[in-house]
Amino acid sequence: MLRNRYIIDFDSTFTQVEALDELVKISLKNNPDRDIVLKQIEDYTAAAMDGRMSFTDSLRERVKLLNADKKHLSELVKVLRKKISDSFSRNKKFFEKNADDVFIVSGGFKEFITPVVSTYKIKPENVYANTFEYDENGSIIGYDTTNPLSSEGGKVKLLRELNWEGDLYGIGDGYSDFQLKESGLIKKFFAFTENIERASVVKNADHILPSFDEFLYLNNLPMAISYPKNRILCLAVGDVSDTTLKLLKKDGLSIRHKSSFEDKYIKDVGMLVLGVGEKISASKLKGAIRLKTIGYFGDSSHHLDLDLCTDMGIVVFDDPKHKVDNVLFIANRMMDFINRGSTKNSVNFPGLKLNTEANAHRLIHIHKNVPGILAKINNVMAEHGINILGQYLKTNKKIGYSITDVDTEYDKAVIKKLKEIEHTIKFRLLY
C-alpha cells in the first residue's frame, strides 16, 4: 500500500521564527553592530523566500555573518523549542502517531532542527537539512556545499534523488517550498501563513493554511480541536478597539470589522463583537444559526434580546462600565469560551470556569433546564462504552450547560445521539 508523506518546512513554518535570525541575536548579543547585521540577514532571508535571490547566494551570505559556534547553537535550540508554531504545538499527537510519515525538509541546519523536532517524535532520519562546518575551536566557518539543500532548487533535487512513491504533501512558507509544486513532485502545496504571508508564495499555492489545523481538517486527519478556528468568522461591528481585534486575530480567528451588521454575514458569523451603543435586531439574531458567542462593549441589556440569545444557546459577555483600560476583557472572555468552554462573567449563561483538560475530548451540550438531561447524556456515553473523565453541569432558570470530558475518540454515532436528546439547544465538539 502506497504511503502519504508530509513534507514540512522548518523556519517560519514548524517554528514561528527564522532560526538564523535568532542565532545572530545570540552570537552577537553584545556586539554594537548586532542590529545592522540582523537586518542584513533578514533581508537575505526575505529575498530568497520571495524568489528575488537564489537560495545559494542567500545562504552563503547569511552564514558569513553568523559569527557563531557550537555553544551558541545549544542556546539556539532552547530558544526554538519555545517558538514552535501554535497550531503545530497543539497537534503534537499527530506527529507522534504519524512519525514514519512526517519529514522535515529545510534549507536550515540539522544541528538545531533535529533536537527541536525530536520532542515531537520526528525521527532524525526523517530530517533533511544542511550541516555546518567548524574550525578546531568549534566556530562555524561554513557548511557542506555538496548537500543538495545548500543550492538553488535544493528541495526539488533532494526529492528527485529520494524518488518516493505515494502521495506527497508539501507545507511551507517560502519560494523553495513552492518549487516542489512547480516541479510536479508533490500532489499538493499548502502555503503556511500562520507566521508570515508571502504574496508570491500564496498566489501559487493549492491551498492556504492559516494554521496546521486547517491542513488536518482538509485531509480528514485527527486534530486537537474539532474545527479550525480560522474557519470561525468573528465579526466586529462599530467602535471596537484595534487591540481587541489583534488579540482575536492572534488566536487564529477570521476577523471582519464593519460599521454595521451586514445581511451577508448573518448565516456565517460564529462570533460577534459589538461596539458600545450597537443594536442587533431579533430577526437578525434568529438568522445567525452558527453564532456561538457575543461580546458587547457596554451594557448589553438594552441593545440585545438576551432571552432570545439564551434560547438560541448564544453566550453573551459584556462590560457594563465600558472601562477604557479594559479593552482585553471582552476578547479574553470570548476566547475562554471558544477554547475551553468557560462561561465565567457571562450575562445570560450559568458561570463556569474551565481549564483545558490534557489527553481528553471535550463535549459541550446546551439544553433547556428540564430534569433528566444529564442522565440521558450519560446513557449515550455508556451505550458506546465511553469513559467519562470529568463532567460539569450548571443551570439557570432557562438552560442547562453541560461539559463532558472523555478519554476515548468520539464517533459520529455518539454525536448524532447527543444532538437528538430532547430539549437540546446546541451541541459542540470543542477538542
Notes on the structure:
Its EC number is 3.1.3.3. This is phosphoserine phosphatase. Keywords: Amino-acid biosynthesis, Hydrolase, Magnesium, Metal-binding, Serine biosynthesis. The chain has 431 residues and is α/β, with parallel strands linked by helices. It has helices at residues 10-14, 19-27, 34-49, 55-65, 70-81, 86-89, 92-97, 110-117, 154-162, 175-183, 199-202, 212-218, 242-250, 282-287, 306-311, 328-340, 373-383, 412-420; strands at 4-8, 102-109, 127-130, 132-134, 140-143, 167-172, 188-192, 207-209, 233-237, 254-258, 269-274, 293-296, 315-318, 361-368, 388-395, 399-406, 424-429. The chain is built from 18 helices and 17 strands. The strands form 4 sheets. The protein has a 6-stranded parallel β-sheet with strand order 3-2-1-6-7-8, sandwiched between helices. It has a 5-stranded parallel β-sheet with strand order 10-9-11-12-13. A 4-stranded antiparallel β-sheet has the order 15-16-14-17, covered by helices on one side. Helix 2 (19-27) packs antiparallel against helix 3 (34-49) and helix 9 (154-162) packs across helix 10 (175-183). The longest helix is centred in the first third of the chain and has 16 residues, at 34-49. The two termini are 31 Å apart.
